[in-house]
Amino acid sequence: MKNIKLKYTDKGYSYIECTREDCFDWGGVGICDYCNKPMYKEVYLIFILGSAYCPECFNEWIKRSERDEEDLYLQKLNHKKWYSAHGFDVGEYK
Ligand SMILES: [Zn+2]
To answer: From the CA of 44, how far away is ligand 1's center (Å)?
Structure first.
């Protein structure tokens, strides 16, 4: 299990900035879930989308995403488990 710091967008959604190698470790194929292009640089793993995005798609998503209290509640309950299923120990609940 890899220790990593959970980050949050300005809308309150958690994500992890990781690498292509991490992606292979959790059984991913290193392809962006949004644009289907191979990810060679940073990989953004996002609980609320259940997806891994490349930097470009991540930045686009940040701009268009909206804060949703139900999503944030769901995130609070489940994200730590979900990230840990991808091999990341994100520390405390938040
Ligand atoms: Zn992409």
So the answer is: 10
Report yes or no: 29 and 8 within 8 Å, Cβ to Cβ.
Answer: no
User: Which structural domain, as residue segments, surrounds residue 8?
Assistant: 2-89
Contacts of 69 (CB under 8 A, 6+ apart): none
Å from CA of 33 to ligand 1 middle: 7
Q: What total number of domains does the chain contain?
A: 1
Q: What is the pTM of this model?
A: 0.93
- Does 94 map to a domain? no
Distance 1 CA to ligand 1 centre (A): 26
Among the listed residues 10, 4, 5, the one whose alpha carbon sits nearest the alpha carbon of residue 63: 10
Mean pLDDT, the chain, integer:
95
The residue among 69, 36, 81 whose CA lies nearest residue 54 is: 36
